[in-house]
Design a protein that fits this description.
mainly beta, 2 domains, 4 helices, about 10% helix, about 35% strand, globular
Length: about 375
């Protein structure tokens, strides 16, 4: 779906020109939630690769290098290989098909697909990423104990998924957590330079919406200080494909990561938005002990930082909305429009993919 810049700006207009402070409601304000959390990837994937857990509980890997990153099934047999050449899967193994959909959705296996069938490696994508619902990190079926105090986090179990990068074994470890209902987190912004406004859309993974008046160069650094976004001469925005921040944005939005490097079209002229882990509340944040954050940007010939804080907000009642807070529904809707538009633009020039093996719901 293509959304025009006019439509995006119209959505943003609902927000007002600037919003300095927003309240992020808890991910599940009324009920405890059970989530899979990634702890360590040892050793780290090299050549620009990464491993993450998506908001819907899938594991995802990115490997833009020439050395394949291999994912084995629980029985030890290799079933997925990801590299700069694309993604290929073992189309003869049940794990390839059973992990394409979330747990609880039945999978009909094609004829001849069994754990003992001879491997049948099949290219399914020219992208450099793969995501799958691995039963080793699934939260479905986990029995959560009753009780618990507001804001408590209890580790129910730990998990481990082995992958391999060439001849190097990599251990991906994490935990299953029970999170009791809590309050929200207020993302506060400090005063911005003249001509610049920053709006933070609340949520478990907050998004930044940056608007810069004028026509001069603008650039945003990513999580690792790498080039991430830049504004071009015509006012549109480009993203650096090799940026870890850009790749995480694609994965967390459910998009694959295309191969290649360099600057790609990201959004049209006007405000630009993205999900940013720097705005997430780290452990230990309380109402009296906020966490500081900063986003490095280049405005013309000078480098500056957009800064602020994340502060915990106690849960005041059953609705989880403190008195006097700013309504967030319109804000979230506008951010969704902006994200869809950016994603559509970023993926517009991607190469067509080969057809997946029969019965596979390749992503």
């Amino acid at each position: 779906m293509n959304l025009s810049h006019t439509r995006v700006v119209a959505g943003l207009a609902v927000l007002g020109a600037t919003v300095a402070t927003m309240l992020a409601p808890p991910a599940d304000a009324a009920e405890p939630s059970v989530v899979a959390v990634l702890d360590t990837v040892t050793p780290a994937v090299t050549d620009g690769g990464l491993v993450t857990v998506t908001p819907d509980g899938a594991l995802a890997v990115v490997n833009p290098g020439p050395v394949p990153l291999t994912v084995p099934a629980p029985d030890g047999r290799d079933v997925v290989r990801v590299s700069a050449a694309g993604v290929e899967v073992d189309a003869a193994h049940p794990f390839t098909y059973e992990t394409r959909n979330p747990p609880g959705i039945p999978t009909r296996l094609p004829k001849g697909v069994t754990p003992d069938a001879a491997p049948r490696w099949t290219p399914v994508s020219q992208d450099v990423s793969w995501r799958w619902y691995d039963p080793r990190i699934a939260v479905s079926g986990v029995r959560a104990p009753s009780g618990g105090r507001t804001g408590d986090i209890q580790v129910l179990s730990t998990w481990s998924v082995p992958v391999r990068h060439g001849g190097t074994a990599i251990d991906v470890r994490g935990r299953i957590e029970l999170r009791q209902p809590t309050g929200g987190f207020r993302v506060e912004t400090d005063p911005t330079p003249a001509g610049v406004s920053l709006t933070v859309a609340p949520g478990p993974r907050p998004s930044a919406i940056l608007a810069v008046h004028g026509t001069g160069p603008v650039a945003v650094a990513g999580l690792d200080g790498e080039p991430f976004l830049r504004r071009t001469a015509d006012g549109s925005w480009q993203a650096e494909l090799s940026s870890r921040t850009y790749r995480l944005n694609l994965l967390l939005a459910g998009h694959p990561v295309p191969a290649g490097s360099g600057w790609r079209t990201y959004a049209g002229p006007g405000p630009v938005g993205w999900t940013d882990e720097r705005l997430v509340a780290p452990p230990g944040v309380t109402p009296d002990a906020p966490a500081r954050w900063s986003l490095p940007v280049v405005l013309g010939d000078r480098t500056t930082e957009l800064t602020g804080a994340v502060r915990a907000v106690p849960r005041p009642g059953t609705d989880g909305t403190p008195a006097g807070s700013v309504p967030t529904g319109a804000l979230i809707a506008a951010v969704a429009l902006l994200g869809i538009a950016g994603g559509a633009l970023a993926l517009r020039h991607r190469r067509p993919r080969p057809s997946p093996p029969s019965g596979a719901n390749a992503r």
